[in-house]
Amino acid sequence: MLSLAAVVPHGDEVLVPEDEESLKLHRAMKFLGYEIKKRKIKEYVFVSPHNIRIDTHIGIILTEYLEGRWKYEKLRFKRRYKVDRNLARKIYESTGEIPRVGINFGALEGELSSLCLDWGTLIPLYFLPKRKMVLITPARGMERNQLVRFGEILGEIIESEKRKIALIVSADHAHAHSEDGPYGYHPDAEKYDRRIERALLSNSLGNLKRMSEKLIENAKPDSYWQLLILYGVLKKVLMENFFTVYGRPTYFGMAVSLFERK
């Protein structure tokens, strides 16, 4: 069953906070780790935009393991996770109406069947207790209704499982908040992030379906497509927001937002 859903950031700044904005996000991620332990969650279904990127197909990772290492400032860490291949295959086999691919690497199974974890997973996972996981990658070239429909099926599948599962959606928001950033400045970055924050706080992610392509392009977010998947999940499993923290310590917006069952 789906016990908890979370939108989480993946900016390095949350790992080693050096200002108030980063610190509140760091503390929010530690709170998420606490909630996972308190709720006795056994597994993660993770959605990350920075792993295998296929423009027109959602990727479902079918390797035996996921592993990687990360460094930031003086911090160094590595992680290795066992994939719940039964659940991953169930998701793959149940979503045939949606453009998706099953992805393996190296060997078909065993120790050499392993794929690299990306910063979209490693940075949030740094704060979370170790669990089995499934990794899914969104597709930016897919129709919005297809992303929502994938989320609906995903929600039904997670809900059908007996153990407690958390859906973790890795998502940083508009990347055009500063002239000093790599994407420059655009006023639509602020508009995008305010709409995202309102949608999270008011449990109204469905409103995002009407967002204009121009606004998304100008804001340069890293969240829109996986939030539509989350919306589809929440259409099938009724949950409501109980905690949201937004911060912008650098040129892009980040948020920690948690949903629990009604």
Query: In the CATH scheme, what's the topology name?
Result: Protocatechuate 4,5-dioxygenase, Chain B
**In the CATH hierarchy, what is the class?**
Alpha Beta
Q: What radius of gyration results from the CA coordinates?
A: 17 Å
Q: Span from first to last CA?
A: 13 Å
- How many β-strand runs? 11
Low-confidence segments: none
Shape annotation? globular
CATH architecture: 3-Layer(aba) Sandwich
Give me the number of helical elements.
7
Spell out the CATH superfamily. LigB-like
Series of H and E elements: EHEEEEHEEHEHEHHHEE
Q: What does this protein structure show overall?
A:
By secondary structure, this protein is an alpha/beta fold. It has one domain: Protocatechuate 4,5-dioxygenase, Chain B. Helix content is 33%, strand content 26%. The protein is built from seven helices and eleven strands. The strands form two sheets. An eight-stranded mixed sheet has the order 6-3-8-2-9-1-11-10, with helices on both faces. The protein has a three-stranded mixed sheet with strand order 5-4-7, with helices on one face. The model has no long low-confidence stretch (mean pLDDT 97).
